[in-house]
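Let us walk through a complete example step by step. Step one is to write down the protein sequence. Step two is to encode the small molecule, magnesium ion, as a SMILES string so that its atoms and bonds are unambiguous. Step three, shown after the inputs, is the structure prediction itself.
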Amino acid sequence: MLEVQDLGIRFGGLHAVKDVTASIPAGQITAIIGPNGAGKSTFFNLISGFYQPTSGRIQFAGEDITRLKTHEVVSRGIARTFQTTTIYRELSVLENAMIGHRVRTRAGLLDALLRTGRERQDVQGSRDGAMAALTRVGLAAQAHLPAGALTQEGQKRVGIAMALSSDPKLLLLDEPAAGMNPEETVNLMALIRELVAGGLTVALVEHKMSLVMGLADQILVLHHGQKIAQGTPAQVSRDPAVIEAYLGSHAHGGQMGQTTPAETTLQKGGAHA
Ligand SMILES: Nc1ncnc2c1ncn2[C@@H]1O[C@H](COP(=O)(O)OP(=O)(O)O)[C@@H](O)[C@H]1O
Ligand SMILES: [Mg+2]
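Step three: the predicted structure of the complex.
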């Protein structure tokens, strides 16, 4: 579904993503893991058009999307959540999802809020799209509550609904389980599985190894911007280069997995897979 070839971006002297060739197959869950600063979020920023690559190509559903702008990428069927999603706590859950819809389609945030001029006629369409997205994440009954009244997990679901409201084929989730407790994490995993069962393709960046190992069909491992492994959870968890990358970053105080040492986390995950 999505193919990247020799993808790279430099920030001054720093190669945040370098020569990455990888694919995200349709109908699967692909996890992107790697120590902090490995280039995971940057990889998503490249795919979603937030950053322009300094080298390489991105193909989606057979089309070259390398130079497209964010809204053009969205219209092709790629949506994303952010590591920290901005939720308007005073607005209703539905209004938040509608803003997601309109920001991701053609109207700006101001238009969405003010509903001026020709934008007015699109409100119903946005409302329908947003409501459908809320139904998919299990928030239909909470649509009229203020978003700030939801639990942490509920607010994460709003963030996912905001992305789903453009009805994407590929959904990119950047650390969806951050800040969640184990029970919420399990619920989130179930939601992601449901979405994929419904035909969505998902790629996610995640630190929680239990989630990654229990959910992903394939894992792409980045380290210093480069791909060091790609394979099933079982393959990746016993890959010497991966173990080395995680141990190395642990030795230097980097964050990996959760609070447990990476080796343990990886082995535990491997046993799960
Ligand atoms: N806009 C930017 N300008 C300069 N450096 C950046 C920018 N975005 C990311 N980086 C750098 O690129 C590297 C990879 O960052 P990031 O993709 O956020 O890592 P990860 O998500 O894997 O933790 C880091 O060294 C980060 O500081
Ligand atoms: Mg990141």
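Step four is interpretation. The chain has two domains: 1-77+168-243+253-273, 88-167.
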